[in-house]
Design brief:
Elements: E1 3-13, H1 17-28, E2 33-36, E3 50-51, H2 53-61, H3 65-69, E4 74-76, E5 78-83, E6 86-92, E7 103-105, H4 108-119, E8 125-128, E9 132-139, E10 142-149, E11 154-164, H5 171-176, E12 180-182, E13 187-195, E14 205-209, E15 212-218, E16 222-230, H6 234-238, H7 242-252, E17 270-272, E18 277-279, E19 283-284, E20 287-289, H8 304-324, H9 330-363, H10 373-380, H11 382-394
Length: 406
C-alpha cells in the first residue's frame, strides 16, 4: 500500500458539526486546514437534527443565513409534548432577541454538506473523506500530526495542531490517553423512521406515558422517531418479535397504527447508546479535543450539536492568531477548555437531573402519569417557558464569530 506524506497547519479529525465549523472558520481566516472523515458521506440516521437559535445566530454572523434557510427544514418556535394525553409546552423560543427565534429541524447530513460547500470556497481548506485516522504522531512529548489510512494508501499528516472532533467514540481521544470522567446515563434510544401522512400533525413533539417515552421529529415526508428505553434493554427487546415493538409504538402514538408495518425487521431500528462523559483535561501539547470528543452529551434538550459548534467557534477565536504565528502553547489550548468547560458542566448537570428525576421514573412507572406540580406552573407562567427557551436555545455563554478574515 503506497504512502502519502504532507503537511498542514491544522489537522481536524472528524467532519461532524464541530469539525466542519472549525474547518470553515480556520479556512476563512487564511489558515491551511485539513479535515478527515472516516465515512464516505455524512449520511447517518441517528445524528441529531436540532439547529438551535444560538447556531442560527452564528450562521447569520457568518453572512450565510439566506443560503442556509433555502435548505429544507422545519421551524419550531415552542417545545411541546404530551404527558399521557395532556398537551404541555416546556419552552418558548419566539421571544429570543436573535435573528432566528426558533429551532430549525434539518437532517444533519444536509447541514454538514452546507458547511462543506461554504468551506470549499477557500483554497486552503482540504476535506478527505473515507480516511480513517488511527494514531497520533509524536515528537518526544509533542503531538505533531496523525497517521491515517484510506482504501488505497497510508497517510501521514504533519500538523502544527491536531484537533480531535471525532465524536463520543473518538479514536484520537483514546490514543491520547487523556482521562475520561464517565458520568453515565440511565437510558438508550431506538431510532427509526415512519412515513408522514396527510392528516398527521406537523409539529415535532415528545410523548410521556407510563413506561414509555417517544420523540417524533417531523421531517416533512417522514417521521424520525426515538423510542427511549432503560439502559441495556435493547438486547432484550431485539430478542422479541418485531411486532411486539410495533405494538409499543402504537400504544404510545395510535396514529402510527396504519404504518408501523414499515418496520419490517429489527434491521430497520438503530440503537443509539446514550452516554454522558467529559475529559478532565481537553488538551496535550499539539492536541485539542472539542465537541463530543471532549464531552459526550445526552440527547436531552437536543443540545449536543450546538455545544459542539460553540466549542468550534471558541476554539477558532482563540487559536487563529497563534496558528498564524506558529505560537500555539499549552496555555493557548487551556484557554479553550477554560472558555467552554463551565457551560458543559452546567448543561450536563441539568441533563443528569432530567434523566434521574424524569426519564428514569417515567420508564419504570406502571400507573398513568400525573402532571407534576412544576410542569403545571410552567404552563401558567409564560416567563418561565421563555427562560427555559433561552437556556435551551442559547445555552450558557453563547459564542460569536470573530471578524478576523484573511
Amino acid at each position: 500500500m503506497p504512502n502519502t506524506n504532507f503537511n498542514t497547519t491544522c489537522c481536524i479529525v472528524g467532519a461532524g458539526p464541530a469539525g466542519m465549523m472549525l474547518g470553515l472558520l480556520l479556512a476563512r481566516s487564511g489558515i491551511q486546514v485539513t479535515v478527515l472523515e472516516q465515512h464516505t458521506d455524512f449520511f447517518r440516521d441517528f445524528r441529531g437534527d436540532t439547529i438551535h437559535p444560538s447556531t442560527l445566530q452564528l450562521i447569520y454572523e457568518l453572512g450565510i443565513l439566506p443560503d442556509f434557510l433555502r435548505l429544507p427544514h422545519q421551524k419550531t418556535y415552542q417545545l411541546r409534548g404530551y404527558i399521557e394525553n395532556n398537551p404541555i409546552t416546556i419552552a418558548d423560543f419566539s421571544k429570543l432577541q436573535v435573528q432566528c427565534p426558533y429551532i430549525a429541524f434539518m437532517p444533519q447530513w444536509n447541514f454538514l454538506d452546507f458547511l462543506k460547500q461554504q468551506a470549499q470556497q477557500y483554497p486552503n481548506f482540504n476535506l478527505i473523506m473515507s480516511c480513517d485516522a488511527y494514531d497520533l504522531l509524536k515528537n518526544t512529548d509533542q503531538i505533531c500530526g496523525i497517521k491515517a489510512k484510506t482504501a488505497t494508501s497510508e497517510i501521514v499528516i504533519n500538523a502544527d495542531l491536531v484537533i480531535a472532533a471525532d465524536g463520543r467514540h473518538s479514536t484520537i481521544r483514546d490514543c491520547s490517553g487523556l482521562e475520561v470522567i464517565d458520568i453515565g446515563a440511565p437510558m438508550d434510544v431506538l431510532w427509526f423512521r415512519l412515513s408522514h401522512q396527510e392528516k398527521d400533525p406537523n409539529e415535532t413533539f415528545g410523548k410521556f406515558i407510563a413506561g414509555k417515552i417517544i420523540i417524533a421529529i417531523s421531517r416533512g415526508d417522514y417521521w424520525q422517531c426515538g423510542y427511549v428505553i432503560p439502559k441495556g434493554d435493547a438486547t432484550i427487546l431485539q430478542q422479541q418479535n418485531i411486532q411486539d415493538f410495533r405494538n409499543k409504538i402504537v400504544n404510545a402514538l395510535p396514529f402510527f397504527s396504519n404504518r408501523v408495518q414499515e418496520l419490517k425487521t429489527w434491521d430497520d431500528v438503530k440503537l443509539l447508546t446514550v452516554k454522558i462523559d467529559r475529559l478532565k483535561q481537553w488538551y496535550l501539547p499539539g492536541l485539542l479535543c472539542i465537541g463530543d470528543a471532549a464531552h459526550a452529551m445526552s440527547p436531552v434538550g437536543g443540545v449536543g450539536i450546538n455545544l459542539a459548534i460553540q466549542d468550534a467557534v471558541a476554539a477558532a477565536n482563540i487559536l487563529i492568531t497563534p496558528l498564524k504565528t506558529k505560537s500555539v502553547t499549552l496555555k493557548t489550548l487551556a484557554a479553550v477548555q477554560q472558555r467552554r468547560e463551565l457551560a458543559v458542566k452546567i448543561i450536563q448537570k441539568i441533563q443528569m437531573l432530567v434523566q434521574s428525576k424524569v426519564i428514569f421514573k417515567v420508564l419504570h412507572k406502571d400507573e398513568p402519569i400525573q402532571i407534576p406540580w412544576l410542569i403545571r406552573q410552567i404552563q401558567k407562567l409564560p416567563v418561565t417557558r421563555q427562560f427555559i427557551g433561552k437556556l435551551i436555545g442559547m445555552g450558557i455563554r453563547p459564542e460569536h464569530i470573530a471578524n478576523e478574515k484573511s
